[in-house]
Amino acid sequence: MTAITQIWDSLTDEFSNLEVITEPSQVAKLSLDYFHFSPILEAQLKDKRALLVVRPTTEAEVIQVAKTCVKYQVPLTIRGAGTGNYGQCIPLEGGVVLDTTKMNQIRWIKPGTACVEPGVKMASFDKKAREIGWELRMAPSTYRTATIGGFIGGGSVGMGSINYGQLRDRGNLNALRVITLEDDPQVIELRGDDVQKVNHAYGTNGIITELEIPLAPAYPWAELIVIFDDFLTAAKFGQALSDSDGIVKKMVSIHAWPIPSYFTALQHYLPSGKSCALLMICEYDLEAFSDLVHEYKGEITYNKTATEASKGTSILEFTWNHTTLHARSVDSNLTYLQTFYFSLERVEQMYHYFADEVMIHLEFLKFGGKPIPAGLQLVRFTTEERLKEIIRYHEEHGAGIANPHTYIMEDGGRKVIDPIQLAFKQKVDPNGLMNPGKMRAWLKR
């Protein structure tokens, strides 16, 4: 009997009271995310698989899983719905994947705040929260299927970031409850600034079993498409709209031609050669919004009320990283970047310099209290070296790259090792079993 077989038998015995998945195709599916957006990650991660997947339904069952993994020194990787793009939840060293999707209870919702288990789906939560006039502050384009815990563990920005910035900004996460990976797992509650020890930590610093999140007032969000003759006018419109404090909005997404050609379902509203803005605007502000469109010589080709937009596919699903998804469904040689341009001048410089090799897709978000253009550009991939040259050129000219072609947590956006996160990991995961290989601070200690 091999060591792996012995561990397999021991784990399945210990987890006999839990839902355990061992069927190879299901284990493979639950070991992966959308890492294949990156040809670099595709080569590095395509063969990584867990030994088995376990689906706890309670915190007590999570503690059982944690204790068992420590007992047998088996790596443990936490998973939400697996809608991320950077290999956050892919088990580099096999072991156990803990799927949190059955932990999906909303503990309570109050005006301005809520308490949920990690497996609560974002769209389902909003449906309930809107009954009392509130909603999530921000969400990714995978809003219909993504879980709140997964977004906190591996996400960063999304619709709503034009108002609330990034998840790591103070005030965007109130509290967390996490389980440690020690001989006797502990329950730790983190509040205030302490949540940053776990926020966007890829599940390397504790198993989230409960979250307290701040909410935003819910508005009736109209969904609109505005077309423009040229991209730079569209970009200037996006900045002007983002700067317009009196117009309440949730999303400002700008796309240079030929990106709109990849949105098959929207072709009726996107004439050939036109750049476009995909927008979520409060219905109460549409008159002022229309005046702004007129000022920039745009044309509204799509206008759904909030009620109409609540049925069928949301325009959100053509923005943020769904833009990349749609483009790759047409041309699998495309990949993408994530960029903080900070200014329209830098957007214009890159637009002219790279032309169609790097097609610009902007998402406006609040950074340091000011709306800025950020990019999820589509890149015509040729070689890894050329991709590095493109990244280097952006950084040398003042743009900030959140590199989506690495699974190392610190190498993506922040580019620095956080000693506080490292100290917390040493406390809660002394054996380094939680999602090993993803935290550079641990690898270099």
From TrEMBL:
The keyword Flavoprotein applies. Keywords: FAD, Flavoprotein. Residues 45-218 form the FAD-binding PCMH-type domain. One of its GO terms (molecular function) is D-lactate dehydrogenase (cytochrome) activity. InterPro entries: FAD-bd_PCMH, FAD-bd_PCMH-like_sf, FAD-bd_PCMH_sub2, FAD-linked_Oxase-like_C, Oxid_FAD_bind_N. The keyword Flavoprotein applies. One of its GO terms (biological process) is lactate catabolic process. This is FAD-linked oxidase. It comes from Aphanothece hegewaldii CCALA 016.
